[in-house]
Design brief:
One of its GO terms (biological process) is cysteinyl-tRNA aminoacylation. This protein is an alpha/beta fold. The chain contains 16 helices and 16 strands. Helix 7 links the parallel strand 10 and strand 11.
Length: 486
């Protein structure tokens, strides 16, 4: 089944083709860790998670890299104002390093609560200054960058395709940013952006500092360069999918493309990133949820409204990622009701199965191919999560499927939904998961065919999962009992 996705670069829904067959590299722009993350951010990271889970479900091997910005992101994305981390440190009276570590922990606590699988690699900008400097040196050597008293800038006029992502030509873009305060008179064009700031003038007392690629003064990297340096370091020169919020299209991602394309030699038709994926905002009263507008809600606010954080996943999935989603507490509450409904039904299905354990046959417990296929079709259609959810409910309501298959199908679909259904059901009911029962059944079979080595291996596997199998005899027949290890 072809996976189709809207590519901001071509402005079309395209059939996804990875650079290397069967493998997908995803680079997701990550958080700037200077303050509490909020659920507006979580819409983006949940969609990254759904994207990753979908590709895995379709059989791809996924490598997911997400950066952590802990230096160089100024108050404005366009090189103006203070460094957000330094500002956060000043506000809290802590060191920049403590601020970064505290809010990184808060970020991951939040994503864990939403059952967002942690990326395979989460590189921090401050750990990759070497890679950043190497890239800046390449750009200086090839005259795509120039040095002023204050900074090293990328010269946007040296890259003819600058503006291709947002669809604006460079002249229009320069008019667009001309009104902004330019603090460096030696900057050549308004669209040029800083690759590196020197610790002079306004930044004289900047705490985080390193030896600069040129000159005597210490300095620190600009924001955009970290994503180019780290994405290529971990995923190679050609990246399959790069994600971000729609606010990254005109500046951050445009700049990433320019510096990556100029720092490397690409053949004709080769791109730094093949598919650019952008998520629309979570809004409050029609405005983007953000720190600067002070209209944001955190995980703690969600919990204090008695809403299960996992229900937010259902809330986000109800709307296309390409449309804004207006957050209301009523909306969150109805997602919470939907979540409770799914868990309740899953518990009923599961307890029915447990009481019929004696008649359990391994030809039961099958996924329903038709519904799984419909579910995949929906996800393959530009991640149509709303339709995928509709398929889940249709399947749960279908009277023609037996309970065992229904439960198995739901648990299978949950690999993408990420509601942690089986774990929640088992925790609430104290029952034993299908997976353990399957292993025990296999072990019984292995004993019957006298493959004792396999039987022992299966027993060991069950034990590592926290259970023990005890052999029994029922009516003269060999049987077994599974108990949870204390
Ligand atoms: Zn980025």
């Amino acid at each position: 089944m072809d996976f189709k996705i809207y590519n901001t670069l071509t402005k079309k829904v395209e059939i996804f083709k990875p650079v290397k067959q069967g493998v997908v590299g995803i680079y997701a722009c990550g958080p700037t860790v200077y303050d509490l993350t909020h659920i507006g951010h979580m819409r983006k990271y949940t969609m990254d998670d759904i994207l990753k889970r979908t590709l895995t479900y379709l059989g791809y091997e996924v490598k997911h890299v997400m950066n952590i910005t802990d230096v160089g992101h100024l108050a404005s994305d366009a090189d103006e104002g203070d460094d957000k981390l330094e500002k956060g440190a000043l506000k809290s009276g802590k060191s920049v390093w403590d601020v970064a570590s505290q809010y990184t922990d808060y970020f991951f606590n939040t994503t864990d609560a939403l059952n967002i699988i942690r990326p395979d690699v989460t590189p921090r900008a401050t750990d990759h200054i070497g890679q950043i400097i190497t890239m800046i040196n390449k750009l200086l050597a090839s005259k795509h960058a120039y040095v002023t008293q204050k900074a090293i800038y990328f010269d946007t006029n040296t890259y003819p395709n600058y503006g291709m992502l947002s669809g604006q030509n460079i002249a229009d873009k320069q008019v667009g940013v001309r009104g902004e305060v330019v603090t460096d008179p030696d900057k050549r064009h308004p669209t040029d952006f800083a690759l590196w700031f020197f610790c002079v003038g306004h930044f004289e007392n900047h705490t985080m500092r390193w030896a600069s690629p040129v000159g005597e003064n210490d300095g620190f990297p600009g924001w955009h360069i970290e994503c180019s340096a780290m994405s290529m370091h971990y995923l190679g020169d050609q990246i399959d999918i790069h994600t971000g919020g729609i606010d990254h299209i005109p500046v951050h991602h445009e700049n990433e493309i320019a510096q990556s394309m100029c720092a490397h030699h690409y053949n004709n038709n080769e791109q730094f990133v093949n598919y650019w994926l952008h998520y629309d905002f979570l809004t409050v009263d029609g405005e983007k949820m953000s720190k600067s507008k002070n209209n944001f809600y955190t995980l703690d606010n969600v919990r204090s409204h008695q809403i299960n954080p996992l229900a937010l996943r259902l809330y986000f999935m109800g709307t296309s990622y390409r449309k804004p989603l207006n957050f209301t507490w009523e909306g969150a509450m109805s997602a919470n009701n939907m979540y409770t409904k799914i868990i309740t039904q899953a518990m009923n299905l599961q307890s029915g199965l447990q009481s019929n354990l004696a008649s359990h046959k391994s030809d039961l417990w099958l996924v329903d191919e038709k519904y799984v296929n419909d579910f995949k079709q929906a996800l393959c259609d530009d991640l149509n999560t709303a339709r995928a959810l509709a398929v889940v409910f249709e399947m749960l309501a279908d009277k023609n499927i037996n309970d065992a298959d229904k439960y198995t199908t739901l648990i299978d679909m949950d690999k993408v939904l990420g509601l942690d259904i089986e774990k929640v059901v088992l925790a609430l009911s104290g029952n034993i998961s299908n997976n353990i029962i399957e292993l025990a059944e296999k072990r019984k079979l292995a004993k019957e065919i006298k493959n004792y080595k396999l039987a022992d291996d299966l027993r060991a596997e069950i034990e590592t999962l926290g259970y023990e199998v005890i052999d029994t005899t029922t009516d003269g027949q060999d049987s077994y009992k599974i108990i949870k290890k204390l």
